[in-house]
Design a protein that fits this description.
By secondary structure, the chain is an alpha+beta fold. The protein is 41% helix and 29% strand. This is YdbS-like PH domain-containing protein.
């Protein structure tokens, strides 16, 4: 489990289910990065190189690194007391919603999300709080585990 969630568990709280960002959800960044990479490699092989290849390769690496950071810096977990989510690497956004305040979970999936099994989980809390956590792998399973836990928490002891 990620460091943020582990370091923020309170007394007698344990993780029931964790979710990860799907690598497939980052395919646009990998495709764009790959196209820039191919373009930069082609430019570096040109006989009259003017330094443009370095810029193109930097852009390619930036797209790929952005996707990797998004995957490894997002955490989502159901604990015995809360739903906790953290996104961001340098700038951090956190959501911690006590289970008694959870009103519902919504799963949104695009066509590619359905094909590659990723989507956004939207946590609805009392007071109209709606918190989307995007790009989660197998969001329907996470929603199902949360609903089962809310119905019968003793089965997870």
């Amino acid at each position: 489990m990620g460091s943020y969630i582990d370091s923020n568990l309170i007394t007698n709280e344990r993780v029931i289910k964790e979710a990860q960002v799907s690598w497939w959800s980052q395919w646009p960044f990998f495709v764009i990065g790959g196209l820039f990479l191919l373009s930069g490699m082609g430019a570096s092989l040109a006989p009259n190189e003017d330094g443009g290849a370095g810029v193109i390769l930097f852009i390619a690496v930036s797209f790929i690194v952005f996707a990797i950071i998004r995957v490894i810096s997002t955490e989502l977990a159901l604990t015995t007391k809360r739903v906790i989510a953290k996104t961001g690497f340098i700038r951090r956004n956190t959501i911690e919603l006590r289970l008694e305040k959870v009103e519902g979970f919504v799963v949104n999936q695009s066509i590619f999300g359905r094909i590659f099994n990723y989507g956004s989980v939207v946590v609805s809390g009392t007071g109209g709080i709606k918190t989307p956590i995007p790009f989660i792998y197998n969001p329907a399973e996470f929603r199902m585990v949360v609903n089962e836990f809310l119905e019968n928490p003793s089965q997870f002891d």
